[in-house]
Amino acid sequence: MNKKGKSALVLLAAVMLLLSACTSGKKETAEESGAPGKPPEAKTETAIDPFRLPELVEVSTIKAVSPNERIPQGDTIEDNMYTRHFTEKTNVKFKYMWYASGDDYTQKLKLAVASNDLPDAMVVDERTFLELADADQLEDLTDVFQTYASDQVKQIYELNDGLSLDKATIDGKLLAIPNIVPKGDSFQEIWVRKDWLDKLGLQPPKTVDDVEKIAEAFITRDPDGNGKNDTIGLPGNNGVVTTDYGWNYDFKALFNAFGAYPSIWLKDGSGNVVYGSTTPEAKKALGKLAEWYKKGLIDKDFALRKNPDELVVGGKSGIFFGPWYMPFGTLTNAMMSDPKADWRAYAIADGHGQYNATVVPPSSSFLVVKKGFKHPEAVMTYFNYNTRFLQTPTPDDKKLDQTYVSLRPIDLNIGDPDAVLKKHEMIKGAIEGKLTPDQLSPEMQGHLERWNKYKADPKANIGEWGPPYAYLVGGQPMADVKFNEVYSLYTATTKTMEKRWSNLQKLENETYFKIVLGELPLDAFDSFVADWKAQGGEQIMKEVQEAVQK
């Protein structure tokens, strides 16, 4: 979406949308709301408070805890400042059937699902959610959501066009309250030292060809001016060539620029499900990477290098693929090494001028309620309060020590999927004088203060540079261009995946690396696809096809 030249009025509207919250829910009578669990004759004029039940309700649950969970002295997992606060405010008291860490939690959850020994409410991943839904073990929350969800909660779900609620809806029934995954991390960018571009008379990159020319120039034309042939082109990631949603230094952005979407499920021109890592477009992108590596445009040691950050921080590389948040760590360290560096972020278009991005799933975790639980509205009430607590905390909420926030009974969060973009607009608007500091969220007020402190004395306050710069510059490509957002058709796990997926991923990763490094010819990609299908991929595609047709 092109945001250039946006007026102060529109900026302010975006800010207010991000800050909006309902301090009191819709006041409906029981008759109007159709509140579950009440007999027809119990029609009163009692208003519904979306953040507090009229009487205490106990809800059983389970909890995943860290092996090193921090707990205040005198408190426990079951009874602590957060459980007491939430119970006091909501009249919803959670009782733990059990809690565990790591693999122990996973195994206990599997056993609970298999034996139908479920708590009243719990958070599960998508695979478990679908398994429970298929077994008819979940309460229908459709009416509960419509009646008890706060205006704030409903407004937040509307921000991703209902994609999250759709993901939790099966056969027309809302069977879970889903989280919302922010989209910002989906858009992998190309970070470039503009001071090096300016010195060499080069324009910022817009296409794959531009990236190639800049990488070559940075290698051959001594951009750092030290008279030595010691700069490199693009760093790489020694763990993966590309991923579904992007890692630091992988090449997902280049694949997307070829119309390739590795590691996700798509439909081909005939409407059949295909795996994005096996498409002809993926082969073309691999061919380009192999060509770049052969030309020396990619770090020759990238497959072995443990920490590619050292190339950027050490001033050896002035161009790399990475997400918007790189200034939070890597680039702050790079600026400490060279405060004169001018890092900028850009989006890379495909051959038709379109900007493509593999987008994170709208939801990955699901708050479910056991079928038959008498008070599902209690779970919704807690969720309303938890959302307000995280988004717009009250003075009482702010008294809690955030060190222990993981002690909340149920941890499932929703927020604006476009938060990075809107925070970019906030801080940019404030720096340009279009917004006043009091029109910013508390978080962005803090980042503005950091920015002003840095600008007042860059040398003394270089450590303040990163967070505001990430939003200001890292968020700029999201404002400059409209991305073609490509979602995976399927993000759960099929039966064959459980047995074969690990080996298939190993086959994929090894083949990709060998092709890029020149150890295998590009046509080995075709053999990889055939092997992938024969070793379980063909069956998995059929299972995914069946799943998406339901």
Strand content: 5-15%
- Mean pLDDT comes to 92
**Looking at the chains present, what oligomeric state does this protein adopt?**
single chain
Which stretches of 5+ consecutive residues score pLDDT under 50?
1-17, 19-43
Give the strand order of the largest sheet, numbering strands 1, 2, ... along the chain: 3-13-6
Cα radius of gyration in angstroms: 26 Å
Note the overall shape.
globular
Say which CATH homologous superfamily of the largest domain is assigned.
Answer: Periplasmic binding protein-like II
End-to-end Cα distance, whole Å, is 32 Å
What name does CATH use for the topology of the largest domain? D-Maltodextrin-Binding Protein, domain 2
Continuous helix count: 22
Please identify the structural class as seen in this structure: alpha+beta
CATH architecture of the largest domain: 3-Layer(aba) Sandwich
Helix content: 40-55%
Whole-number tally of structural domains = 3
**Strand segment tally:** 14
Name of the CATH class of the largest domain: Alpha Beta
Give the biggest beta sheet.
3 strands, antiparallel
Task: Please describe the structure with a list of short key phrases separated by commas or semicolons.
single chain, 550 residues, alpha+beta, D-Maltodextrin-Binding Protein, domain 2, 3 domains, 3-stranded antiparallel sheet, 14 strands, 11% strand, globular
Characterise the protein shown here.
It is a single chain. This protein has about 550 residues and is α+β, with helices and mostly antiparallel strands. It has three domains: about 50-185 and about 360-405, D-Maltodextrin-Binding Protein, domain 2; about 185-360, Periplasmic binding protein-like II (D-Maltodextrin-Binding Protein, domain 2, 3-Layer(aba) Sandwich), CATH 3.40.190.10; about 420-485, no CATH class. The chain contains 22 helices and 14 strands. The chain has helices at about 10-20, 30-35, 80-90, 100-115, 125-135, 140-150, 150-160, 165, 195-200, 210-220, 250-255, 280-295, 310-315, 330-335, 375-390, 395-400, 420-430, 440-455, 465-475, 475-480, 495-515, 525-550, and strands spanning about 55-65, 90-100, 120-125, 170, 175, 175-180, 190-195, 265, 275, 320, 345, 355-360, 365-370, 485. Helix 21 runs antiparallel to helix 22 (about 525-550).
